[in-house]
Automatic annotation (TrEMBL):
Listed GO MF terms: ubiquitin protein ligase activity; zinc ion binding
Stated name of the protein: RING-type E3 ubiquitin transferase
UniProt domain SIAH-type: residue ranges: 119-179
Source taxon at top rank: Eukaryota
Zinc as UniProt keyword: yes
Region of interest (Disordered), ranges: 1-21
Gene3D superfamilies found in the cross-reference section: Apoptosis, Tumor Necrosis Factor Receptor Associated Protein 2, Chain A, Classic Zinc Finger, Zinc/RING finger domain, C3HC4 (zinc finger)
InterPro entries found in the cross-reference section: 7-in-absentia-prot_TRAF-dom (IPR018121), E3_ubiquitin-ligase_SINA (IPR052088), Sina-like_RING (IPR049548), TRAF-like (IPR008974), Znf_RING (IPR001841), Znf_RING/FYVE/PHD (IPR013083), Znf_SIAH (IPR013010)
SUPFAM superfamilies assigned to the protein according to its UniProt record, in alphabetical order: RING/U-box (SSF57850), TRAF domain-like (SSF49599)
GO BP terms: ubiquitin-dependent protein catabolic process
Claim: Heme is one of the keywords in the record: no
First-tier enzyme category under EC: transferase
Amino acid sequence: MMESGAHITRDIPESETEDETAVFENSSVVNRCTFFKASNAMTPKSEATAAPVLTSGTCLTDLFDCPVCTNSLCPPIYQCPNGHVLCSSCKLRVEDQCPTCRRELGSIRCLALEKVAEFLELPCRYQSEGCTMVLPYYQKIKHEKTCELRPYYCPYAGSECPTIGDIPTLMAHLRNDHKVDMHDGCSFNHRYVKSNPHEVENATWMLTVFNCFEQHFCLHFEAFVLGKEPVYMAFLRFMGEEIEANNFRYTLEVGGNNRRMVWQGIPRSIRDSHRKVRDSYDGLIIYRDVALSFSGSTSKELKLRVTGRIWKEE
């Protein structure tokens, strides 16, 4: 009797074509699918609902990773005529050409693989980070999108940095690779100067990291165009989960020339991208004309002093 997780193998003569090999590969998937059905059929009724649990190192689980983006495959799963599979998102990105054999993809669904997934329970892909969840395959995909142990993206906005990792890894990355200024304390006082305020581009001016309450906060300050109007914006992000960020509050104040503006809010988690926070206008927004009035200048130079503090709600 075949044991669970066993592989069906045979020698393939060199004379066989790619198409013949593909047929065998697909039949292997079908046989596995049939095995799981038969396995449940032979199990006593009290145990029949228990799906086979596979570890992340099981060879079968590798079938469910898209070879392009490496994310878990979910329906619709597509395959080329040679049996190579990929996810629907990557099918669009590769312009309907198989990334493995370069054949035209067409719209062939890999129904066998989709069916096999219904019978599997797999550990979260962030098991190595400490997640202990084991879920039915399609529930696993949903869980991984919000798993609290999934890595964070680098919060540095100016370079669209692809680096990911846990908070200590990102802190070292920001310090060593982006040369970000880091300060200890819960209050700040920064001065921003721009020689020609009429030249406003969609670019980040500055990122500063503050360490307080044994947590890390990112202060963003940048210039961009809102509609047709140049604006300056400052906001705070928390390096951690949203549920933790909600425990904190912060204020930002900009002033000068006997004028001032004050903003109070809740720091946003870095789970929310820099662009998402900026485009939601969740921060202190200063229009250029107002900024110039703070500077005591009308055209030559922009001078802004932004102060603020962070505190923890009791």
